[in-house]
Amino acid sequence: MKRKSIAALCCALLALALAAPHALAQAFPTKPLRILVPFPPGGGTDVAARALGEHLQKELGQPVVVENRPGGNSIIATEAVARAAPDGHTLLLTTDFHSINAAFGAGLPYDSLKDFAFVARVSTSPLMLVAHPATNAKTLGELVAAARANPGRLSFASLGTSSPHYLGFEWFKRMAGVSILDVPYKGGGPALADLLGGQVNLMFIVAANGIRQARAGKMVALAVTGPARAGVAPEVPTFAESGYPEFVLLNWYGVLAPAGTPRDALARLNAAIVGGLATPAVAERLAGVGVDPAPSTPEGLEDWIRRDIERYRKIIALTGAKPDGR
After folding, report:
1. How many CB atoms lie within 10 A of CB 283?
2. Rounded distance between C-alpha atoms, residue 70 and residue 16, angstroms
3. Where in the chain is CATH 3.40.190.10?
4. Phi, psi of 43, rounded to the nearest 5 degrees
5. Is the pLDDT of residue 185 over 50?
6. Which DSSP letter does residue 258 get?
7. Which CATH superfamily is domain 33-124+250-319 in?
8. 118: which of 178, 281, 294, 295 is 20 to 30 A away, CA to CA?
9. pLDDT tens track for 208-265
């Protein structure tokens, strides 16, 4: 009888031990989740956050609130997440601005790597260099020739020195050895309006949006910044194909959490996000803002951001760019 009792107790303990990891995994989430977006409503990051939020709500069984906290080149929202409780219930949908801010270095109220846990990359997307038709350049080569023949006469609509648009174009100018006037704008909407109106000659734009305007005859698509031609614009060559093999630049979205977030919470969030990116509902909404799903593991996102920071550090050193507002 005593042996049977001991055997039963051992079996019960074994069952509890086997069930413990499952119970731990199911413990998260225990309350509503927040996804902070460092930009105003209506933009690509906002659309992506809301698409993912709806999927996470179904997948995780808790409400998901998307909170827009624009300002400071994404620093305001990023700091809020760095200071949040590390329990997996507060997330940041960030972009390459995270890498650029880190690459500029001094002045950040957080460490861009040490103060965060990495959840998943969401998407990547190339930019497209477009020109107003009056520029009379049909190819990147023709643009460079025109710029060399008329130094400082052509103009480029930039979105501030802390943007990939500005840094990428300054990098290209130095590669090509051309002088093109930088015209700063506070947002992509006003910049695009002036490009369409002919007030500026050139602009970097999301490839999916650029090709729609180009096919309508409103602008000319010169080149895309990805390592390969964009699926939405297979007729447009890359910068590499146009004579600049080192010029590769990709925008990206990724999800971060505060440093110290439990591994089981990160694993569950990663699985839910990766699963969501494979669904037509989420993928179609991302396609609507011109980005391609590009899921990763937490480790994959961390490696991606580390390499992106180093890339922008080199570009900043080369161009001598100074950060906006700092």
Report:
1. 16
2. 47
3. 126-224
4. -85, 180
5. yes
6. E
7. Bordetella uptake gene, domain 1 (3.40.190.150)
8. 281
9. 889 999 999 999 999 999 999 998 899 999 999 999 999 999 999 999 999 999 999 9
